[in-house]
Design a protein that fits this description.
Layout (H helix, E strand, L loop, with lengths): L36 H4 L9 H4 L5 H20 L4 H8 L3 H8 L8 H10 L12
Length: 131
């Protein structure tokens, strides 16, 4: 059969699980009391658009894509559809719906997301108002 491809020798550092891959032997610190969150975090009011709150470029576009993607996922969940079933109905690739489920929306235009959500039976209405 030939030579073994893996060494039969076991490195002594890998035999004891508690000491494996440890660069130091100090125990982890234990806190006697939990830290008070209100002392560490300042809370403030935000808008409906988290992307704008954090100053993301193209915040409105990202927010709209997220809203449409949430409707796509909601439609799949309500109908108890798999990604493959939903893709067949929407006329897209199952990997596309999986990306939408994982909120990986960088590959999608708003137009493409609207086509998918309408193919899944959702009605899209745009409402314009003053800010």
């Amino acid at each position: 059969m030939g030579r073994p491809r893996l060494s039969e020798k076991i490195d002594t550092g890998h035999q004891n699980a508690p000491t494996r891959n440890r660069t130091h032997s100090r125990p982890h610190p234990v806190h006697s009391q939990p830290a008070a969150l209100e002392d560490e975090i300042e809370l403030g009011d935000g808008s409906d658009n988290i992307f704008a709150d954090f100053g993301a470029p193209d915040a409105e576009r990202k927010w709209l894509k997220t809203i449409i993607a949430a409707e796509i996922v909601k439609s799949l969940n309500e109908r108890k559809m798999t990604v493959r079933q939903g893709a067949k109905l929407a006329g897209c690739d199952p990997a596309d719906l999986q990306r939408i489920r994982n909120a990986d929306l960088s590959r999608f235009s708003i137009d493409r997301l609207i086509k998918i959500v309408t193919a899944l039976g959702r009605k899209v209405e745009l409402v314009f108002s003053d800010r």
